Amino acid sequence: MEKNYSLGLHRICLLSLFLFGIVINKITDGGSGLLWLLVGTPGILLLLPLILPVFDKFYGIESAKSVDSTSKKTGLAALYILTGLYVLWTAYYASFRYADFIASIMIPGTPVVWVQLLFVLICLWLAMKEPTVVFKVALVSFVAVVLSAVLLFAVSVPHFASFGSLFKNLDFGALADFNLNNPVLRFFLPLPVILVFFTCTSCGTNKKSVYIGTAAGALLFGISMLQLLLIFDEKYLATLDYPYLSSVSVLAGDEVFLRLDGLVYAILYVCFFLKCSVCLLTIRLLAQKFSRRLGLFVTPVCAALIVLLPLLA
Amino acid sequence: MGKQNTDFENTIISDNLQTNIDFIKNLFKKDSMLRVRQVRMNTGLGTGVDCCLIYFDGMVDSKLLNESIVFPLQRSKIVVPPASLIDYIDKKVLFAGEVKRVTGMTDILRGIEYGDTALFVDGYSTVLIIDTKGFDTRGISEPEDERILQGPREGFKEAILYNTALLRCKLQTPDLCIEAQHIGRRTDTKVFICYLETLVEPDMLAELKARLSKIDIDGVLDSNYLSELIRDHPCSPFKTTGITERPDIVAARLLEGRIAVMVDGTPAVLTIPYLFVENFQSDEDYYLNYLVSSIGRILRFLCFFLAISIPALYLSLVGFHEELLPTMFALSVAQARGGVPLSSLLECVAVIVIFEILKETGVRMPQSLGHALAIVGGLIIGQAAVDARFISAPVLIAVALSGVCGLMVPRLRGIVFYARFVLLFWGYLGGLFGFMLGISALLIMIFGLKSFGVDCTISLLDPSPQGLKDILWRSSWRKMRTRPAFNRDRIRAGENKP
Amino acid sequence: MNVTKIKNVFVMPLVLLIFVLPGCRNITQAREPEQEYLAAAMGFDRGEDDLLEVTLEVIVFSVGEAENSIESRLFTGTGHTVKEAVGNLSGGVAKTVLFSHCALLVLGENLSAGQVDEVFRFCTTERNISISTVVATAPDAGELLSCESISTPITAYDITGVLQQKRRDWGISLANRLHEVEAGRLNTKSFALPYFTVEKKDEKNSYSLHGVRIYEKDLPSLTLDLTGSAFYSLLSGSFKSGSFYFEADGTVYQPEVRHYSSKVRTPAGTNEIEINIRLILEKERYSMTDTDALKTALEKAADDFFNTVTAACRTDVFNIRKRAGLDDVPGEFSNVKIRFDVKERPG
Could you give the CA distance from residue B414 to residue B416 in angstroms, rounded to a whole number? Predict the structure, then answer.
């Protein structure tokens, strides 16, 4: 008794959390980053109507067996392998970055590889389940993450410098500078992965949910960046390894001495957990288009590669 | 393997009375409760027909047997041709509520083993099974584990036939279907599958029947035997079949398109599918005002989380993340722990084990000793242990709070016990990271649960306003117009505008 | 391949791997809360042989007593770096020291620039020290921390309490949290810290807040009294609310400021900078006629103060360029005008 649920709301939640995870990063170009986000997000939203049909066409095929010609099949396989490599790289980067955060901040003294291994194993477990489980986790987590992010923003308000100083220091000239380190590029780089995932899960790319999810993710990230830029001086912000976490430390030091770091830990965990799981699940779904057994085999191998790559490098 | 009723499916019933009597006597030669009562029906012309009543003493209603069967048989005169004798006895002679004509030995054995009387007539291979059940049953009482403040207080009994009567009183509709099966090689236990024909999912029903038919076991004495044999995820600590002793609950679940499985000999009835949110529902949620019951529902969700998390969070914060604790709190904890010989983890484990022992003892012991146990357990052990510095007060408070929260969700007591320990170890060993890993694992398990093809957290897949109105809280009956999402007929109520 | 077996293959390592996390390996080492000291404050002085002398105020408690069993104890250590000094703490430090609850950092006035840099390097890399820790300065940091506390058993909390009180009374709200000081060091190479002095009375040390000390390039350059501190806050944009007094033309003024705002702008086509300060005063203290006199007196006093400070300092201690948005603009701005807009709070 399988019913097809539209899962539109779930996609919005998953997409926004997928993008929001970048909040862990160092912010070396705060003011221009915010500008780029304000300008780049509408730009990406305008490009999406052109991109989505391409994804539907190439990744919406249910099984490679339904493709007639051998050359098309080979082309499809090549495309999926390239996509898989990109997804693998995204998963590796996300898991390594997060494991590094855990090993240096939360449980110092633990080798990064063990933290990464444990984390990837849990993500692999989720990836071996049905995609609906991921969507459910995303739905539940989204509520918690949004509430936490908004709460942190609200509690930070007394510590803000004036808005005037923020706008005075924004460098609009930076908008002309587009390179590989551009913050918009870094923010939207994982977007193709989640679009592939959406296409591979039965219902295709639900356009409305992709637009709203992208906007929601950008909004969440924008709120967090605003919080950082208003609390910290931009030069000082660039020296912080984990600025979002540091901004929460500023909220401490009152008589109660209550720290809200736990919320940031939870936000980051959720975002990276979903990111890594979705990447592994995408690999599995792509492999399953050729053979179900291939999906069962390839996914754990990729998970192992994610953990071993830092050791081999 | 032993003898089973079904072994005699192919046994031919002789038309010779003595042959049949000898066969049955031989089958039950070591059972001194078998009774064989021979009766002669007269033709009025000096001839007669020999009959024999076979039953088990203690299982039949003797008065009914004597007055409604033996006496009429002896007093009546046969006035019909031999070909119609069985029909004549069935319709004209016997004063019984139910009479079945059977030709198979299995049906005869099932009948007499359940309190019916078998009437053999010399010269005929058709046997009449007469309903003479008269064994004692327990009276209807409120189930101990499902007490409510307001609402019906009936509970099922061990005898399955009475249970079906209780159910039929709630669901007075021809849509109610009750299909019988027999499971258990030696117990041949009656199992009734109950459902509403127009609401049930045919695939789910077929799946249930298929699983029941595959059961190969010596005996079924309780519905939990079936539950463990037919459930999805056999190794999961989470339930995927519901269990209740209340007819109103079974009726409510049937009205939502579920299937109930009654087992003879036990008042516990299985219901499938079982959604995860049902663990947080109380039986009286729907009998109290929705605002009051919503508070209870929200508290149960909160208490489940607290029950499994408090000890783990305490250990992870104190061991790894002291910076998150207010300074005075951190100092209080450190001061309280001064001089305690055990590590925090061992302290927690010890206190949890003691708490579980006290809880289990409280369930098993006589009620009159319950007060003494509370005083001994709570005051003496707890207070004395803290004074003697065997354990620290913060740990005692954390575990006690966690334990009390766990009592709010009795349907999840097993999972609370396991999850608490697992999260405790993960939190102690990995701090908040380990704790979050544990919570993720728990969520993955919960969200991956299925019950007979139905997603146990189906409301999360379809978070429409109607779907969510009976999850975290209960909305008014005016607004709960639809059934759960796995139903093919979703609408259960009209507009009901004031 | 059996899917259940595959699942079991992954679940087992997951369960076993949890034992590689530090909690298990360190199971016999001190991770219990009673086996760690909480440091409430750190003081840094220049010790003998030019070494860094670190004074730690740690919170200790007595086991088995219910109330008033918390007190502080001082430990001192020296070394070339802060880490070395902490490692050499004297006085029988049997436990690990945790810095996560450190509320105060005190810089002694005799620290060299390199030592101040080392202090801040340690504080920013030591992950447990919160970036909102308050930083202050005193002639001798160790002496300050040894002072008898007034209202709480822990001197550090006492001192931070005094700072908050002075913020209310004098409006002296400095950017002296660790992250603000670091930001100042990065931008203008200057920062201002509250300055405490210590007096000996009846064989006991007691402290008081003298004012503010301005640091330039990690060395103290100017000390201001409370009135000067208030003007410093007014001109640097960190004033919140409170009262302060000053003298002008033989008249003593003590405005009580309810609300303060400050803007720095450069009028177009000029190389002047205007600092516009708006004050809303409590009506009960002043009538309308006094307000004008106050405005004039404030502008004159602020002007004099500004000129004195900028003459004594080499860097932009008031952070004017950044506030005016002139960070990247080369050249000097010679003329700084200070304008006050004083109003009474509507009754």
Answer: 5
User: Contacts of residue B441 in chain A, CB cutoff 8 Å?
Assistant: 122, 125
**Closest residue of A to B313, CA-based?**
A262
Contact A123, A270 (CB under 8 A): no
From B226, B243, B274, the end of a domain falls on: B274
Q: What percent of chain C is modeled with pLDDT above 90?
A: 21
d(Cα C126, Cα C136) in Å, to the nearest integer?
19
**Domain housing B150:** 144-274
Instruction: Provide, as residue numbers in chain A, all residues whose Cβ is less than 8 Å from the Cβ of B453.
Output: 1
Q: Which CATH architecture has domain A8-312?
A: Orthogonal Bundle (1.10)
**CA–CA separation, C58 and B403 (whole Å):** 36
Pick from B266, B285, B261, B306: nearest CA to B401: B306
C128 contacts B344? CB cut-off 8 A: no
What is the token pair recorded at C87?
């490692």
Cβ separation of C6 and A164 shorter than 8 Å?
no
Domain edges within chain A: 8-312
User: Of B269, B243, B259, which Cα lies nearest the Cα of B178?
Assistant: B259
C-alpha count within 13 angstroms, C-beta hemisphere, residue B223: 25
Q: What is the pTM for the complete model shown?
A: 0.87
With CB atoms and an 8 Å threshold, state whether A136 touches B461.
yes
Instruction: Indicate yes or no: CB of A246 within 8 angstroms of CB of C13.
Output: no
Q: What's the total number of domains in chain B?
A: 3
C-beta of residue B191 within 8 angstroms of C-beta of residue B261: yes
ipTM for the whole complex: 0.92
User: Do residue C23 and residue B431 have CB atoms under 8 angstroms apart?
Assistant: yes
| Chains with 3 or more CB pairs under 8 A to chain A | B, C
Pick the closest to residue A156 from A61, A45, A230 (CA basis): A230
Query: Across the interface, do C186 and A105 touch by the CB < 8 Å criterion?
Result: no
Nearest CB neighbour to C186, from listed A164, A169, A235 = A235
The full DSSP string for A160-201 is ---HHHHHHT--GGGGG---TT-HHHHHHTTHHHHHHHHHHS
Which value, to the nearest 10 degrees, does the dihedral of the CA atoms of residues A7, A11, A12, A14 take? 130
Chain C residues whose CB is inside 8 A of the A252 CB are 130, 132
Each of the 347 residues of chain C gets a pLDDT tens digit; together they read 566 666 666 666 666 666 666 555 554 333 677 778 889 999 999 988 899 999 999 988 766 555 557 788 899 999 999 989 988 887 656 777 888 889 899 999 999 999 999 999 999 887 778 888 999 999 999 999 999 887 888 899 889 888 888 877 777 777 788 999 998 898 888 899 999 999 887 778 889 888 899 999 999 999 998 888 888 988 888 887 888 878 877 878 888 888 888 888 887 777 778 888 888 887 665 554 577 788 888 888 898 899 889 888 888 888 888 787 776 666 666 678 888 888 887 65
